[in-house]
Amino acid sequence: MYTRRIFPVKGVIKWTRRHIFLFFILSTIPVVLFDVVGLKWLHVPWLPLGVMGTAVAFIVSFKNNASYDRLWEARKIWGGIVNASRSWTIMVKDFINNDHTKEPLSDEKLHTIHKELVHRHVAWLTALRYQLRADKPWEQHLKAGRSNREFREKHYLVCEDTIPIEEAIKGYISENEYNEVFAKGNRASQLLGIQSRRLKELKQNDLIEDFRHMELSNMLVEFYALQGKSERIKNFPYPRQFATLNYMFVWLFIILLPFGIMEGFEDIGKHIVTDLEGHATHTSALHRIQEFIAQHFVWFSIPFSTLLAWVFHTMEAIGENTENPFEGGPNDVPITNMSRGIEIDIRQLIDDTNIPEPYEWKNDIIM
What we know:
Elements: H1 9-36, H2 46-95, H3 107-133, H4 140-144, H5 146-155, H6 159-162, H7 165-170, H8 175-181, H9 187-204, H10 210-235, H11 240-276, H12 285-295, H13 301-322, H14 335-349
């Protein structure tokens, strides 16, 4: 998640510089053929091209809206995880006590049980975020893209790419639980299953009665629901048929754009030439410069074509880079930072020790 009010213009241009250069070449070739080679018929009427541009703008807007909806839904889901984690912790702290047990436990042993359940919950958070950071086939082209890869290497670090999940989880659960979890597929689900089994044992030992057991179990159901919602966004991409056609239409418009703009700039040049014919003198240096510019005014279509192509392509790229909110991009939901914040919060609630410090992020990018 980028935290500054606006992106630096320098960073945006650097991110898109290769495409800007490509758009400049695509805009120059038709002008050379039109003005130098003399293919004056080589142009496209602006009216149908304008209609196409309007349609492309609607399609790009639709994709960007859908991508933002996916991002915002992911943020709401993880906001729910934050709230539910706090609720789970205070319920563990207040519900698991000696109120109904025949053989009361010491405060130290009760705290050990509280710590066990809270640490296992942190392990669930860790497993979930690692699962959400895993690469999917429709995400790999974004990470493999040269501009994205360069930006990633220079400006921010994804912890899940550098720290193995085994190392990240091992300190929160016992060795037997560790072996059980990593012997299965969905590790986050397995950890919730172990939590449920542990609650059953606590009920059998009279450390919680039926009502409290039911409330704690309902919290596990809530965690399963939030995990499932996150997995739904992660495992179901923005429909590829829409994304593919959107990409094709944008590039079709970009390729045809210079052919539609040239004629308009040529007409402007002709009007300037007509106005220059009314000058009192035609031999001054200023007049000759103006006349030369007017005769080749079509060349000014190159920067304008490049600018328009850059706008449409950049908007399409923004939607493409926003549609997967967990992949580890600079604009994604900062689930790593949120997980660490939840861990600090809930471990402080149970008066735990050796609580980790918040992550220190650089370049205004929080992951």
